[in-house]
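Database export, one record per block. Field names are fixed; values are copied verbatim from the stored entry.
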Amino acid sequence: MPESSDESSSEGEPDMSEFKVIYEGDQHDIRADVLLDSIGSVTDLVSTINSEVGGGRDIKIRISAPERGSFGIDLTVLTDIATTVMSEEVVTYTGSLVGTMTGLYELHKHLFGEDPDQVQEDGNDVHVENRDGDVKVFDKTVVNIYNGNDDARDDLDGTYESTLKDDRVEGIRIEDSETGEEKFRADREEFDELSGGDREDELEEREVQDRVTLTVVRVIFDPNRKWEFLLDGEKISAKIEDIGFWARVNNLEEEFSSSDRMEVELVRSQKYDPSLEDWSTEEYTIVQVYDHWKAGGQQGDFFDEDDE
C-alpha cells in the first residue's frame, strides 16, 4: 500500500495524524458499497468532532487504497496550513481529533449505543456507568459530544449498520498507522446492537385515552371507514369501534349530520419521535360513544355524506 506520509511530504503541506480502519474477514472481496458506507460514517464522525471542537478549522480527510485481505484504510486528517502557523500545533490538534474519535467508539461500545445510566465528573474525567453497572472513565469532551450531538450518534451507529449487509465482515478495528497499536475493536456479534438495530426494534409506542367532545365534520355510515371530526380546532379522522353505537345506528335510534357534537372515549395511538423529542399521533380510534347532541338544538337528517 502507498504510504500516505510519502504523499504528504511535498512542500507547503502541513503535518498530519494517521490511523487505520481494518475490516476483518477471511475473504478480501467485501462488497464495495458496504465498505464505502461504513468508511463514510467514520469520516463523517471525524468531521462532526472537528465541528464541535475545531473552532472553525478546515480539515481534509484522505483515504488511501485498501489493503488486500484485511481492508486496512488510512484516514489522513490534515488542517489547512493557512489557519495554523505552528506545525507542532497541527499534529497536536489532529492527534486530538483521532483520540476523541476512538474515545467515542469506546464509549458507544461501553454503552451498547444507549444513553449512560449514570455519570460522575472528576475534573476532565467522567465516570460513565452502563446498563450492566460497569463503570469506565472517559474524557469529558468525548462524553459531551456523545450526549449532545445526534449526528455523532448517527455516525457511530452507521459504521456498523452497513457492515451487517455483508457476512464476510467479521470485525472492525482501529489501529495506529505507525505503531500498529490497536485503539479499538468490535466483533461481528456486536454489530447489530451497536448499529441501533435492537433499539429500532423497540421503538417506543403508547396509547393515550381521553374522554373528549368532538364536532362531526363528515358522517360515514360504514364501520370499516373513518369519520372526520374537529378536536380542539384540528381536523382528525377516526374509526368508531363501539358495537353498541353501531347497533343504535342500525336500529335508526341515532341520526347524524355535520356540526353535531359527540362525547366519546378517544384513543390516540402514538410513537415517540427522537428527532423531535416528543410523541406523534399515528391514529385515532373511538372506542365508546357516551353522548350525542344536535348542532343548534335542531334535529338533523340521518345520512352518509358520500351519497350526496
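Remark 1: The chain has a mean pLDDT of 81.
Remark 2: The two ends are 76 Å apart (CA to CA).
End of record.
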